[in-house]
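Exam revision sheet. Question 4 asks you to relate a sequence to its structure. Input first:
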Amino acid sequence: MGDRIEFPKNFEGYMTMAKDAEETGKKDEALTLYEEAYNLQPDFEANTKIVNLLMAEGKFQEALGICEEMLQGYFEEDELFETYIKLLLGNQEFIKSRKMIKKNRTRIANEDELLRLVSTSEEQYSMFNPDKITAYKAEGRDIKVQPFYQQMGTLKLLEKLPKADYIDVVKELLINDELPLLLRQSLLESVVAICAAEEYEIITIFGEQCTVDISELTAPGEQATYLQAKELLSKQLEEYEEVFQTQMMEELRVNFSVMYPFADAWITDVSLWVKQLLASYLEVEFTEEEQTSEAFDKNKELLELIQKELVKIMQ
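Answer key, structure tokens:
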């Protein structure tokens, strides 16, 4: 037997040794060598090799962490995207996996196959983990007694529920007026994002309970009024510092989240609404016609109600 060839301890050397080890079935050694290569040079091939070896060992949490370091690459091919979905499922991220599939449905060819994979994973999880599901649902129902930031964490935890169980809890929370409106709206956005096509009861910022058909809704960021307001606000802020621009664009996003999904109906004069939003921070002049308009009063009421909602979560 000849002497073992010594490769230089650089990225290429470690990758060559790792591939040799993997081909001869030395998975642990291969993983260590791929990690050495990756530490020297963050490389997508090394990333996928590490992820696949960790997945084979059932280390889904660790594998997902590595995957997310170079996540964009996993959206380039259907096979890689499927790997990402499997990682989410291995971490019981059922709702997130559905959101990601829907978000990328226009560029993947295997949407139906992936959704079946999610459904199968949910069924298996439900079969073997009924106690966990019961505990998650109970925590979700007790969310009203938690501080706001803990409530946010609980909503994230609920996304580990299978779709049917998730929807059961969400339906209850959407009409729980003790839960901050901003969080209730985030739940509404979530069921829209997973394409849960059915009717839901919600409570609006005016305290009115009404029915919305999820199949007819778009995401908040896709609403015509939001897109128009975003463009107008961006132009108004061109001469201001980037920090202030970022702050105002985030405030705009939050405002529309609170109004969701009724902004298109409630805001009849988008330009005036943007001016009134800015008036809380800048000196803005209004014409007499603007100040006496019905839209001005409606916008003022909306902005005041939104501010009250935001104050609630700060307390």
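Marking note for examiners. Residues 1-5 have pLDDT under 50 and may be disordered.
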